[in-house]
Amino acid sequence: MLPETRRALLCRLAVGQAEGRAPSMMGAVVRAGRAVWTGARTSVPGEVPHGDVQYRIGSLTKTFVAVMVLRLRDEGVLGLEDPVGRHLEGTPVPEATIAQLLAHTSGLAAEARGPWWERTSGHLRPEPADLFGERPQRLPAGRRHHYSNPGYALLGALVERLRDGAPWDEILRREVLEPLGMARTTMRPEMPHAGGWAVHPWADALLPEPAQDTGLMGPAGQLWSTLEDLCRWAAFLLRGDERVLSASSVAEMRAPAVPPEGDDGAAGYGLGLQLVRTDPRRAVGGEGAAGGRRLAGHTGSMPGFLAALWVDAEEDLAGIALANCTSGPAVGGIAADLLEIVANREPRIPEPWRPAADPLDKELLALTGPWYWGARPFVLRLKAERGLELTPLYGAGRGSRFRPEADGSWTGLDGYYVGETLRAVHAEDGSVSHLDLGTFVFTRGPYEPAGPVPGGIDAEGWRV
Length: 464
Prior knowledge:
InterPro entries: AmpC-like, Beta-lactam-related, Beta-lactam/transpept-like, DUF7586. By secondary structure, the chain is α+β, with helices and mostly antiparallel strands. The chain has helices spanning about 5-20, 60-75, 100, 150-160, 170-180, 220, 225-240, 245-255, 330-345, 360-365; strands at about 25-30, 35-40, 55, 195-200, 205-210, 225, 265-270, 275, 295-300, 305-310, 315-325, 370-375, 375-380, 390, 400-405, 410, 420-425, 430-435, 440.
């Protein structure tokens, strides 16, 4: 980090702590898999918190639960489209899919039955049925995004059920935290840890907040963690780790699973991750990315604590902010601003271009170049590991990346053709006649007379 970048980061953190009236605040920036900046501010002279001090992270817990569910999917134990009732008995929404629970589209109530669950003991809700009141489902499953904390309690119970009844936090420690070196992420606070406070809205006064064990609601927001551990978690959410979850499965978590919300369409949700697009008009330290940055991560709040973690996959960059107060500082915006400052002041330097490492397939090379959907020109490029990329030759339009399949076809990975099949169709002489992409025909020339264009080509051809 350049000295002026470090000063800008510290300034943003200091302004956030002072204006938000937080007893303490910590921040970090992760780039290329490692922490490149950390900072802290406190109201207690001589007691600046360090990176091994625990803070409660609230709903960031949900990102850990989602990873455990995706691990089960990758092992073939469950499918994301499975109804949750197939694997977990006694749920109030047995037909809701696991994917809908992950993306908060199950229609379940936002909060648990009984008194404010974040401030009361989990003993008040000893069984899964005790999590829900008389009307557990508030909306039809799959119709719209409706954030549900009890929905993640069900996912935690699902993980326990499919891992032979072991407690979800023990499964998390064994399968996720230990491989990633996150020894200071725990269910209950372990010294050193920050105390949780409420700050009076109209006076500079403090009130200690309780730290309850929320029992079955733990998967919705129970975890405590440190800045150092969350830097490791941010690196994982950017790159994956084969010991825990592959990079492709982590990227799937970051993909939109529900339509964006709000008038500006700036907020959405993936599989356990919140998705936001930043407003380029409020960029800090530079002009910002055109159209705003696409961030994935989560915010969290529990009595006495606020947390936020955002990653920008395109920049391989993350911002983190933690505070020990119930309300006040906008830690979500602060974490995004920390990321934005670095992205603008010190843009990512791309890796050098290098020729492909794998042997060149001449048949695939022959497929590359211009193709035409009717009169619209596209270009097909050969990528690493026999992948293909189809993009419009100019302007906006339907484009996608494709992964190769064992039968010689390709499957769309993103864009309009995600999930669709691309095939090279051969003529009787063995040459490639055309490309078939989800029934659309691409030929080597615009409405090529010899091409199998559905509906045929006018006998007189092109004219002036």
